[in-house]
Description:
- The structure is a single chain.
- The chain is mostly helical.
- It has one domain (2-311).
- 81% of the residues lie in helices and 0% in strands.
- It has 14 helices and no strands.
- It has helices at 2-10, 13-37, 46-70, 72-78, 92-117, 121-138, 146-170, 178-208, 210-215, 221-225, 227-254, 258-281, 285-304, 307-311.
- Helix 2 (13-37) runs parallel beside helix 7, helix 7 runs antiparallel to helix 8 (178-208) and helix 12 runs antiparallel to helix 13.
- It is globular.
- 39% of the residues are buried.
Amino acid sequence: MKKLLIYFKLIRWPNLLIIALIPILFRFAIIEPLFELHGLEVVLSRSLFFVLLLSVILMTASGYVINDYFDLRIDRVNKKPQNVFIGTQISRRSAIILHWVLTFLSALTGVYVAWQTQFWLIAIAVVSVIALLSAYSIWLKKYVLAGNLLVAILGGLLIPLFWFVELQVAGINVFFGFDAITQAASVWFFAVFAFFTTLLRELIKDIEDYDGDLAGGRKTLAVFYGLQRAKKIALVVTILNLALLIGFVVFFVFSAKLLISIFLALFVIFPLILVALWMQKSSNSLEFKRMQYVLKGIMVAGILSMIFHFLIPGV
């Protein structure tokens, strides 16, 4: 049982839960109500939806394993000994086998959904993302901003990709009407929010992991430009995120979605302003580690705001 818990920690199960929550809420809070509004049936069955979601979760888990596999030397500097699992509590051989098993199952489930729907772009997308995550872990993350941007782009594309798959499988190009415009705006709101919040978390993590990255010869933003410049760049990303969030909230207000606007203002925008102020005063890795937890909470709050589309449509 203890060994199983270690494996769950290795694949970062809380992060996997958050990733799973995004498409689930998107499907049941936005996609299905929108199809129902237009008198249409969602063609991608719930069973296939969950198989596709499983593919994404397995892919992400395999990415975490291979990332820790190649980061072993750096993690010994940045993490506490009890939080370094590979090479101590899990052998390197077991870790690489786990990575390949998860990768194979992710590809298999992705191809299965593509075969069932005859939409083969799903299989191409799954295999491409698996390859990109491997490239990230092996060499891409060694270069300034390259790895950060890749992770942020993949995080931001999660909802648009599920949106695209749902529409293509149903043979629909676009919805019309004010409600459809509002829902489409919601898709891009969550995509942009996920991109900037993920990018910010990546930059904060680079600042937190400065010592280990420097020792490992990795050219992260913090190592390449220095901690102070890295903090300024992270602050700029925070301000851009805030500006876009405020813009979307204003749009939601004019779309008569007042409750979601209030929720976002209280639990996303206000905490993000506090993070921006906190960032300017922070000076040690522990503070930046705590900041990451706060950003994770902000992301969860943003995801949960989807519930308002389903429970209280139009307010």
